[in-house]
Each structure stands twice: as C-alpha cells, then as structure tokens.
Design brief:
231 residues; Ferritin; 0% strand; binds hexadecan-1-ol; binds fe (ii) ion; EC 4.1.99.5; NADP
Length: 231
C-alpha cells in the first residue's frame, strides 16, 4: 500500500488543503530563494568554485519559480510573510557563519542540512501531490542531490581541518530543524504528509552524508541522535 492510499482522499480544492498549501507553498518558494542567496554567498567565500556555485544557485532560483507555478495552478496565494519567519533562525545561523568566514559551517547548513531537509520533504510530497506539482517536484528533487553532492565532496576533501567545526555546527543547527518540522507538522498533515516519515528520511539522508564525508558510524549516530533529543 502506498502512503497516499492509506490516507483519506485529498481534496486539492478544499479550504483546509488550500489554507495549508498557502503556507507550505510559501515555505518552499522562500526556501529555494534563500538557497539561491546562500549559494551566491558561498560563491564569494570559495573563489575556486565560484562558477559552479553560481550555477547551483541559479538552479535554486528556477526551483523557486517552479513552485510558484504549483501555487498558481491550485489558485493559492503563497504566505511569504509566514515563510520568511519560518526560516529566520536558520538564516541567522548561515549569515553569522558567513560573516565569520566559517565556510564549513555554511556548507553544512546549506549543502547538507537544508538539502537533506528538502530531499526528505519533496520525496514525501511526491506521492500525495496533485499531478502538476508532482511532475515539477520530481524534477526539482533530482537537482537537490547534486547540491548535496557538492557539499559532500568539499567537506570530504577538507575533513580533518573542519571536523570539529562541523560537529559544533551540527549540534547548533539540528534543534532548529526539529523546531521547523514541529511548526510545519499540522500543515504537512493537511496535505497528506507524515512528520515521522519526514524525520526518518531526513535522518537517513543526513546520516549518510556525514558518513560520506568521513565521520565514523559511531560519530554519525552521536551527531544525529543528539539532534533528536530536542524533538
Ligand atoms: C534547497 O534547494 C531548497 C530548500 C527548501 C526547503 C524546504 C523545506 C520544506 C519543509 C517542509 C515542507 C513540507 C512539504 C513540502 C512540499 C513541497
Ligand atoms: Fe532547490
Ligand atoms: Fe538545492
């Protein structure tokens, strides 16, 4: 049985669905826009990779436009004010790291945590999305693996030098992610998604990324379970 078959049929034109979608749609439009800003910022911090990071950033701008079309298609107006607030804490952390030239922290926030969050959210949304949004989300999520991969490669190449910084950053960022998940839970539920599945997929993706860049299984589990205590 698929996830959608276990739920009540979704009515994309109901008030409940459209109200929840206005906030979810705002979140993904704003999230993609912030991802664009973060990649542009990273392209200045990493002169060797400027062109590649600009290219990744431009993909995020296209994602933002694509999700705008998903809202329009359902005749929903995205709640961008809510979304801007939703990302406040994460944005503060990224900007503060950038202002201190903490490149590894910036990459952990954008290329690992945010991308794993997006991949988990989009993969869970696809089976319950309307046909128009499903197609768009499938093509968006394919791009997000590329963004995650950029972060993994850079952090792996610099692992010994940045390991301690990454551990500290992860401990700071995961509680913010759990808070964001709790905040979005009622709306995610209204559009047919389940918080538990989101958490599971996020942890699988993020844990795999940590191992990929050089953390041992034990270290990876310490980092991911530390985050969970805050949930
Ligand atoms: C990176 O490329 C984009 C970052 C966007 C972050 C999105 C986070 C989503 C949070 C939970 C929303 C659930 C539903 C998503 C459905 C489209
Ligand atoms: Fe994106
Ligand atoms: Fe991305």
């Amino acid at each position: 049985m698929t996830q959608s078959q276990t739920d009540q049929a979704l009515d994309f034109s109901s008030d409940r669905y459209r109200s929840a979608y206005s906030r979810i749609n705002g979140i993904v439009i704003e999230g993609e826009q912030e991802a664009y800003n973060n990649f542009i910022c990273l392209s200045n911090l990493l002169p060797d990779d400027t062109e590649e990071l600009m290219r990744l950033g431009k993909m995020e701008r296209r994602h933002s436009k694509s999700f705008e079309a998903c809202g329009r298609n359902l005749d929903v107006i995205p709640d961008l004010g809510f979304a801007h607030q939703f990302f406040q804490a994460l944005r503060n952390q990224f900007q503060s790291a950038a202002s201190h030239q903490k490149i590894a922290t910036c990459l952990l926030i954008q290329a690992l945590v945010i991308e794993c969050f997006a991949i988990a959210a989009y993969n869970n949304y696809i089976p319950v999305a309307d046909a128009f949004a499903r197609k768009i989300t499938e093509s968006v999520v394919a791009d997000e693996y590329e963004h995650l991969n950029f972060g993994e490669i850079w952090l792996k190449a610099n692992f010994e030098a940045v390991k301690d910084e990454l551990e500290a950053a992860s401990q700071q960022i995961l509680p913010i992610i759990w808070q964001m998940l709790n905040q979005v839970e009622p709306d995610a539920k209204a559009i047919g998604m389940h918080k538990q599945f989101l958490i599971e997929e996020f942890l699988v993706r993020y844990g795999e990324a940590l191992k990929q860049i050089g953390f041992s299984t034990r270290e990876m589990l310490r980092l991911t379970s530390q985050g969970l205590k805050h949930n």
